[in-house]
Each structure stands twice: as structure tokens, then as C-alpha cells.
Amino acid sequence: MIKIGYKMRAYNPKVVGGKFIIFSVMNKQKDGTTAWLQVMVNQDQSTFGLQHKEEIKILKISGADTNEYKGKLQFTLFAEIERLQFGVQPTDELSETETQVLLGISNSDLPF
Predict the structure, then answer these.
(1) DSSP 87
(2) Residue 76 lies in a domain
(3) What CATH number has the domain bearing residue 34?
(4) Over the range 99-108, which residues count as b (16 or more CB within 10 Å of their CB) and which as e?
(5) pTM of the entire structure?
């Protein structure tokens, strides 16, 4: 079941038309089969750079639509999401030590 407040992973996010991000989410059925669903969100500061398999939480569902693709019915949700912690976010500030480790330099390499 897909529901407001549920946590799930975003698979294969893509920017569409420069304004939206579309990605897939997986929904396990009671019989063990897997169904895939598309989710479309506005591309803004909170969703920019969404990564493959990043954990998200659905905050609001504003609509739904169906279409056919290669003979199969697809279902798309239009939603607002919250990104949950996944690695280092672009807005996170790195400490001097973390930066040195990432760059592969040590204190003895620095001129000051």
C-alpha cells in the first residue's frame, strides 16, 4: 500500500521538462508480487539532486493518472515528498577534517 507518511525508496529519478522529477517506487503485494508505480514531484530546492534508492516519505498526494506504455497500464501519483537522510546532502557543511579526507590530503601537505 502507498499512503501518506509511508517511507519508501525512489528508484531511477529523472528530471522531466526541467520542472518535475519522476521516479519509481516499489509496492509489494500480499501475494508476494511486486508492482511499480511512478511518482511525479515538483523540482525545487528540497527535491533537487534526488538519488537512486534514496529514502523518501510521501507528505501529500495531489492527484493520480493512468496511461498506457508498451501495452501496459502505468499509474502515476502526483505528490509532495520529504527526502530522508541519504549520505551527504548538498546543503550539509563538511568539517575541515572530512574535507581533507575526501580530498586525500593531510595536514603536512598544507602550506599553513
Answers:
(1) S
(2) yes
(3) 2.40.50.140
(4) eeeeeeeeee
(5) 0.70
Angle, CA of 21, 68 and 24, to the nearest 5°: 30
Please indicate, yes or no, if residue 18 is contained in any of the structural domains. yes
> Minimal CA–CA distance to 21: which of 75, 77, 59?
77
Q: Give the angle 102-51-85 at the CA atoms, nearest 5°.
A: 70
Name the residue among 22, 25, 45 with its Cα closest to residue 35: 25
Distance of CA 35 to the CA centre of its chain: 18
- Is residue 104 in a domain? no
Find the mean pLDDT for residues 29-46. Answer: 88
- Cell (9 digits) for 19: 520542472
